[in-house]
Amino acid sequence: MPRTARASVGEISYHVINRGNARQDVFRKKGDYQAFVDLIARACERIRMRLLAYCVMPNHFHLALWPYSDGDLGKWMQWLLTAHVRRYHQHYKTSGHVWQGRFKAFPVEHDDHMLTVLRYIERNPLRAGLVAQAEEWPWSSLHRWELTQQTNFICPCT
Asked: Are 137 and 143 spatial neighbours (Cβ–Cβ below 8 Å)?
């Protein structure tokens, strides 16, 4: 029996997460993180999407996404995760599941809760003890915003 389609409504923001299969690390080295961030930018070129925040951790990721149209979230995520899995298997000469299952997407109201979610996403490396300050984690939008202020770097999907 086919899976039921996810309801993804345009103009509603979502906190999107996925974790490596069996909680294993998916991002093992700098190149893995960079390739995923690059794929995020390419996904935005293929399907317009507002990326509000992101954080790529060793065995999972968090995204705050705001699709323009109904169905865009699913299409965008399908392209991102499929492209990533292809790259992962080709690079590591593996096969099988990379992610523990389908991504999870939680609607987020455009109010104070949104700020809480964005802070949660960007502070994830700090809570995990990977950095002393959240902005030190190079694979998050907080780090990118810091670079933007210093060097006019443009974050993916802006």
From this structure: yes
Q: Which residues contact 103 (CB under 8 A, 6 or more apart)?
A: 16, 17, 18, 77, 81
Please give the model's pTM, rounded to 2 decimal places: 0.87
One pLDDT digit (tens) per residue for the chain, 158 residues? 555 555 678 889 999 999 999 899 999 999 999 999 999 999 999 999 999 999 999 999 999 999 999 999 999 999 999 999 999 999 989 888 999 989 999 999 999 999 999 999 999 999 999 999 999 999 999 987 755 554 444 445 54
* Residue 29 counted as domain residue: yes
Cα angle 35, 41, 47; round to 5: 130
Identify whether the C-beta of residue 65 lies closer than 8 Å to the C-beta of residue 156: no
Q: Which structural domain range is residue 143 located in? A: 13-151
**CATH number reported for the structural domain that contains residue 62 in this entry:** 3.30.70.1290
From residue 151, alpha-carbon distances to 2, 41, 100, 146 in Å are: 48, 19, 37, 9
Q: How many domains does the chain have?
A: 1
- Report yes or no on 6 lying in a domain: no
In a domain? residue 2: no
Tokens of 124: 């994830």
